[in-house]
Amino acid sequence: MGWLEAVRREHRKRKRLYALATGITVFAYVGILFGIYTLFWVILDIRLPIGVFEHFISGLIAIGTGLLTVFGPKPVSGKEPPEYIAAKAFRERRDVRADDNHFEDHKP
Description:
Largest sheet: none
Radius of gyration: 21 Å
Oligomer: single chain
Number of domains: 2
Order of helices and strands: HHHH
């Protein structure tokens, strides 16, 4: 198996992880939102217009996405690991071996 297959497999794993984290975040926010809406509607007998409710949902999704962006997985110590560089090279269709300093920068 070549490095390209390894990069693709890693990318698929990360995409699944991000999709799962986003799904859980959105599900949790929507659940909290329904709980708040139920609190207003059932206990306090205050009915919110559906437009406001939709704004709450979109706002919470935006907050969840922002939190995942800020606190999500990042490259260690600010340096991109080799698989990120290899994936970027694949997207740009260039040869990673042409970069002389590529592997020296990321030795353990």
